[in-house]
Specification:
The structure is a homodimer. The first copy, chain A, has a 4-stranded antiparallel beta sheet with strand order 1-8-3-6. In chain A, strands 2-7-4-5 form a 4-stranded antiparallel beta sheet. With about 250 residues, chain A is an alpha+beta fold. Chain A folds into 2 domains: about 150 residues, Sandwich (Jelly Rolls); about 80 residues, Winged helix-like DNA-binding domain superfamily/Winged helix DNA-binding domain (Arc Repressor Mutant, subunit A, Orthogonal Bundle), CATH 1.10.10.10. Chain A contains 8 helices and 12 strands. In chain A, helix 3 crosses helix 4. At the A-B interface, helix 3 and helix 4 of A face helix 3 and helix 4 of B. Chain A binds a DNA duplex (30 and 30 nucleotides) through helix 7.
Amino acid sequence: MSKRRSTPLKNPEIKGHHCTTDVRLGKLSMVPFFRALSRQELQKVEEKFSANHFSRGDVIYLQNERATLLRVLVHGKVKLIRHTLEGKDVLLDMLNPGEFFGSLRALGDEVYTDTAITQTDACILSIGLGEFRSILEENPVVALAVLDITADRLHSSREHIRRLTTLSVEKRIANILITLCTKFGEDSKYGMLLQLPLSRKDLADMAGTSAETASRIMSQFQQDGIIKTGRRWVAVSNPALLKKMAEE
Amino acid sequence: MSKRRSTPLKNPEIKGHHCTTDVRLGKLSMVPFFRALSRQELQKVEEKFSANHFSRGDVIYLQNERATLLRVLVHGKVKLIRHTLEGKDVLLDMLNPGEFFGSLRALGDEVYTDTAITQTDACILSIGLGEFRSILEENPVVALAVLDITADRLHSSREHIRRLTTLSVEKRIANILITLCTKFGEDSKYGMLLQLPLSRKDLADMAGTSAETASRIMSQFQQDGIIKTGRRWVAVSNPALLKKMAEE
DNA sequence: CGGTATTTTGATTTAGCTCAACAGACGTGG
DNA sequence: CCACGTCTGTTGAGCTAAATCAAAATACCG
């Protein structure tokens, strides 16, 4: 019935793009918690970061690996997951450019508590934990900004716990779509398109359900005219209806 | 069979105790993130806090109330919960003396994202959010300590999410008991006694299950000789076996 | 065009919820 | 100190949401 076509997402490839180091470093000024820094201060900070390019699906670091770096996403999307022994992954967060991840502690005996994998090709800046800590010590405003972000993440995480323990899978998925929409939504002919490759498995790992159940619910949502979806992409065509589905 | 007796917990009442303001403020020096301050600095900080006493079961603040204060628990136990419309509460954290709670943001338009209720009688210090923020700005070391605590809480919260989505209720409860044991455990004739009044409902709200299911599992654990438990108290008599139960 | 990864759909099973009734523990007031 | 009322915990029975198992269908990739 529907015309066969490729994903409507922006091409996640940035081959050849390979932003120059200068460009990548320049991006630091866009990072929320460095906004408060003067041009001079920013300059000094920039020198301490180094830049790397990753292809889609690359593992940036692994859970339980010794934690040495703090990273800042400059381009692309990254997902944070936590594994279990039986291969039942849990997807903890999806990151946009400007967000930091990795570790914050600089004690030296820390390990990463999750695994970071690129969801698209990506450019990432990194800095040693000790150096980052020095920056925070010397710039209380930056430290407070990082604290605010961390506190926000804690609240989101706790809200997620609340939903996991009190809502049906259907409502959980509706809520997740709404959250993703505010973070990754972009106007398109299909409605608010989530600018992010998203498989049923990813969605299931976020909602704490099986890929099959996620698929069934997404099919239902599509039938109800709430969303348009294809292979690894989703668009919300009727946000109002979705909001109603998510209600408790 | 078993002799009828009262809870083996320390008397949670502190009537008459009502620690003097001096005593309560003195406790600030015990708070992890103020450790780094000099006596002088601590003096200035102390003046900005005010002390209050609460009885068991008192609500310290309510979810969605305008957030104005940051609190530090000095004496007693406090639980943080998040409500749902249908009265199905979620228990997010249990606090020991020395821990902070409330809000961190000082934007003025913030509300509390959870409800704080005393689990025993309690002494609590509080400080205006703006004032606390000033302290953090002036003492980067304190700010970093608060950041570390917040980051730790985020990690615990995410680990909890992992368990909720991958483990059976039985294993979740076993894990929760282990965690509570390291935080509230105290040697006693019953084994490691959790120094904290804890009902089946509390446990259920932590594990994301029903009070009935929590009860069934606790009964089983007791039969297996893993724990001793009574009305609103629990002791772990066989930690090794409990650890085995919690394994994934 | 063939191969692989992803998604869909159906059938069966089950962990845990809900409802319901009871029993034991606490504490309070006489 | 005892009797009573109220919380808290226990136990049983049936029900349901969602997991699991199993194929088939579809989309994308080179």
